[in-house]
Amino acid sequence: MRKLTSILSAAAILFLFLDGLFGARPSYAAGPPSNIQLLLAAARINDPLDFCGEPVPLNDPDVKERFEKEIILLLNNPAQVILWLKRTGRYMPYIEKTLRENRAPDDLKYTAVIESSLLPHIGSHAGAVGYWQFIRSTGVNYGLTIDRDFDDRRNLTDSTLAAIRYYKDLYAEFRSWTLAVAAYNMGEAGLRRRIEEQRIRDFYKLYLPQETQRHILKIAAVKLILENPEKFGYHLNPEDYYAPIPTDVVHVSCPDETPIRLIAEAAGVYFKKIKDLNPEIRGNNMPLGTYSIRVPSGGANGFSKRYARLLAQWEAKKPEPKSPRVSKEKKIIYVVQRGDSLGRIAGRFGVSVADLVRWNRLDRRNPIHPGQQLAIHR
Questions:
Q1: Which helix (H) or strand (E) holds 377?
Q2: Are residues 356 and 223 in the same domain?
Q3: Which of 219, 223, 225, 364 could be disulfide-bonded to 289 (CB atoms 3.0-4.6 Å)?
Q4: Both 226 and 260 in a single domain?
Q5: Alpha-carbon gap, residue 372 to 336, rounded angstroms
Q6: How far is residue 49's CA from residue 222's CA, in Å, rounded to a whole number?
Q7: pLDDT category, 256, cuts 50, 70, 90?
Q8: Residue 288's domain spans which residues?
Q9: What span, in angstroms and rounded, lies between the C-alpha atoms of 280 and 145?
C-alpha cells in the first residue's frame, strides 16, 4: 500500500510539473501589466480639457465615458501614436504657422491628424482625399484643382488654406468651433437639420451620426496625447521626429504634355522624388502650361539650363504635331462661376483642359476664380 501511495504521489508531482510547463496561461499574462496600468491611468483625466477654447464637459458622465473610450483605444495602438508624433515634426510647423497667419484656432491642427494621419494620399469610402479629407465638390468650391492631372487635396499648402477657409465659413454659421468641425465631418446641411429638429446647439447634447459623435472626442484625445506624450509613456528624442524636407521651387514651362522624368533629371533626382514632393501631380506627365514644382534643396541651381536642354532633346524625337483643330475666329468669352473647374468648363464646351490653359496662358498652380474671363475657341 505504501508503494502504491508513493507511485501516486510521484505521478501527481509529474502532472503538476507538466501542467505548469505546457498548460494554458491566464489571459491577463498576454500583455505587460505596465501597459494595462497605463491605459487605466490614461482614463483618469482630472484637469480641464478644451477644444479651440470651448470646454469638453468631462463632468458629464456620458461625455466622460465616450472620451475615455477614445483615449484608451488610441493608446492601445502605440505604433500609430508613435507615427503621429514623428510626423508632427515635419508637417505641424507649416500648419501651425498657416493657422496663426489666418487667425484660426491652433487646435484645428489636430483635426488633420484624425482626418488623414498626416498622409497626402489617404482616401475614405466617401471619396474624401488628402491631408484634410476634402470631398471633390467641397474642394472645388474652395478653389482646389481636382481633375485628371492634379489633385490639390494632396497638396499641403493649398489644402490647408482651403480647410481654414471652410472652417471659418462653418464657424460664421454655427458660432462654435466644435460645431464647425462636426459640420466639416458630416456636412453642414445635415448638422443644420439636426439642430433645427432637436432645438439644441450644444454639440455634446446633440444626437448625431456615431462617426461624428466620436470625431470631436477623438480629436480631443489626440490633442491630450500629442501635447503630453511623456505623460502617456512616449519619450521621443528630438532626432526621433521627422524633420521638414528642405525644397526649392522651380518654374517649369511645358509646351506640350511633358514627361515628369525630364523635370527629375534636370533637378538631379529621380522620378519618385518629384512625385513625393508634389503629391498633387497625377500620372507620369505634366500637361501643357507653366507650373511651380518643388524639388530637393539645391536642385534649382542650374535647373533652367538643364531642363531646356533635356526638353529640346526630347522634342527633337517627337513626331510632327497634328494641325490645330480649332480656329481663332470662333472665340467666345466665358465668365467663371462659383464651383467651376477647368475640367468642368472644358467638358461643357467640348474642348481639352490643355487648350484652355494654352488659350488663356494659365498657370495650373493658380486656381481659377469666380468672375475670371476665359477665352474659348470652338
A1: strand 373-377
A2: no
A3: 364
A4: no
A5: 5
A6: 12
A7: confident
A8: 247-316
A9: 9
The single-letter code of the amino acid at 96 is: E
- How many Cβ atoms from other residues are within 10 Å of residue 166's Cβ? 20
Beta-bridge partners for 291 = 252
286, three cell numbers = 505634366
Are the C-beta atoms of residues 154 and 130 closer than 8 Å to each other? yes
* Cell numbers that stand for 52 in this block: 479651440
Has residue 324 got a pLDDT over 60?
no
Residue where one domain finishes, among candidates 212, 240, 268: 240
Instruction: Determine how β-strand 247-254 pairs with β-strand 289-296.
Output: antiparallel
At 106, list the grid cell. Answer: 491652433
Contact present, 194 and 177 (Cβ < 8 Å) = no
Helix axis angle for 61-75 and 33-42, nearest 10°, is 150
SS3 at position 7: helix
The CATH number of the domain holding residue 363 is 3.10.350.10
Helix (H) or strand (E) holding 296: strand 289-296
Inter-residue contact 289 to 254 (CB < 8 Å): yes
Dihedral angle sign, alpha carbons of residues 231, 232, 233, 234: negative
The pLDDT tens digits of the residues spanning 198-221 come to 999 999 999 999 999 999 999 999
Q: What is the pTM of this model?
A: 0.75
> In Å, what is the CA distance from 168 to each residue of 93, 99, 370?
20, 11, 20
SS (HEC) of 84-109:
HHHHHHHHHHHHHHHHHHCCCCHHHH
- Residue 8 in any domain: the answer is no
Q: Locate cell 503629391: which residue?
A: 279
Predicted confidence (pLDDT) per residue in 336-372, tens digit: 887 788 878 887 787 888 788 888 878 766 778 887 8
Strand partners, 286: 258
**Signed CA dihedral, 293, 279, 313, 269: sign only:** positive
Task: Taking residues 37-51, report their average pLDDT.
Answer: 80
